[in-house]
Amino acid sequence: MSKRYSKLGSGEGPNYDWESDHTFVKVSARDTNGAYTLMEDNLKASFALGLHRHDTHAETFYILEGAVDFYVDGDWHRCGLGTTMHVPAGVPHACRVADASPARMLMIFQPSGFDGFLAELATMTKADFADETKMAELNARYDIIPMGPVPPHPDDPV
C-alpha cells in the first residue's frame, strides 16, 4: 500500500538551484491533485522578479528569513520575518530581496502548476531561453503574463 501522506525535511524535495534563488518543492501538484503547490524559496542577494500577473492562480508568500520588497497592484511593501503577502489572480506584482540581502520564504500557488513550470525550465538550454516563441508558449501554459521589469522602488537612487 502506498503512503497517503508525504514528509520532507530541510533540504529535501525536488529542487532547482538557479542563479538568483534555490527553490524546493515541498508539496507538489501531484500531492494535492492540483489544488495547490507549496515551495520553499531561498532567495540569493541578486534575486529580482519582474512585473507579471497570473490570470487563473493566486500566490501567497510567507517570509521565513530576511526581507522581500513586493510591488503589488502599484504599491511597494517591505515584508520581513513572519509577514504574509497574498496576491490574488489578475493582480500585477513583482518582487526583489530587500537591501540586496538573501531571504527565505514559503510560497503557495493555488491552484498548483508552478512546480511543473520549474521542472520544464530545468530541462531547457541557453538557446531555449533565448527563443522568444518557446518562452512565450511556456509562460502561457503556466499562466505567467510578463509585464516588464521590476518597477522603480522609492529607495532606489534617482
TrEMBL record:
It is an enzyme of class 1 (oxidoreductase). Its EC number is 1.13.11.24. It comes from the Bacteria. Signal peptide: none annotated. Keywords: Dioxygenase, Oxidoreductase. The keyword Oxidoreductase applies. Pfam families: Cupin_2. Residues 50-109 form the Cupin type-2 domain. One of its GO terms (molecular function) is quercetin 2,3-dioxygenase activity. This is Quercetin 2,3-dioxygenase. The gene is qdoI.
